[in-house]
């Protein structure tokens, strides 16, 4: 399991394909000298991914490994693996990385590979998540940071945040509300791992010394029952 050794910071390898706003949340968190992790390397499989520019000013090492330059997934992932190891990466963070990874890569990085997904997993795996959540009429949506397992958007859950779905939401407004929470929970999950407080036990994650919120939230707020008091999320 990934955790920092002897007070050294946990070295992150962040994999992106696009705008990199979750990468930015990790960059911002690691600007705090007390944060227990640092970004050793950012890899994009898309040469002109917007997220790469975010690494310039904080002077973070970047690499482009374009999947189109490789004959098959295996050789693409060999290069990914080699590059991550060469940089001494302890924990790989998928942050909007739009390539499916093979079982071999996932197994090699087992419990040292995490992902963020914009739904309350195991609901709404896959793509077009916000649109599907609005269509399904769920009252709450959210985001999940989880360890990666070979099946897509599967694996032990580390942190989740929930947001209400409002009656006038469309996919875009819901996505924006969830994204705000993604930017909170990715640095939180990485920080907990880096502090060595996170353990995978079977399909579950156990975390030392954390509180879970006492309060519950109901949507919609109603007059009947006990739902007419509204608490904020913790
Ligand atoms: C996020 O919504 C993330 O949950 C999903 O892909 C999106 C990436 O956004 N896996 P960004 O590139 O981090 O801004």
Describe it.
With 234 residues, the protein is of the alpha/beta class. The chain is 26% helix and 22% strand. The protein contains 5 helices and 9 strands, in the order βαββαβαβαββαββ. A 7-stranded mixed β-sheet has the order 3-2-1-4-5-6-7, with helices on both faces. A two-stranded antiparallel ribbon has the order 8-9. Helix 1 (21-30) packs parallel to helix 5 and helix 4 (129-136) packs across helix 5 (171-194). The longest helix is centred in the last third of the chain and has 24 residues, at 171-194. It is globular and about 60 Å long. Bound molecules: 5-O-phosphono-beta-D-ribofuranosylamine.
Rg from Cα: 18 Å
Question: What is the residue-mean pLDDT, rounded to a whole number?
Answer: 94
Strand count: 9
Helix-strand sequence:
EHEEHEHEHEEHEE
Order of strands across the widest beta sheet?
3-2-1-4-5-6-7
Main sheet summary: 7 strands, mixed
Which hetero ligands occur in this complex? Answer: 5-O-phosphono-beta-D-ribofuranosylamine
Low-confidence stretches: none
Number of contiguous helices: 5
Helix fraction? 25-40%
Note the gap between the termini. 28 Å
- Principal-axis shape: globular
Sheet-strand content, in percent, reads: 15-25%
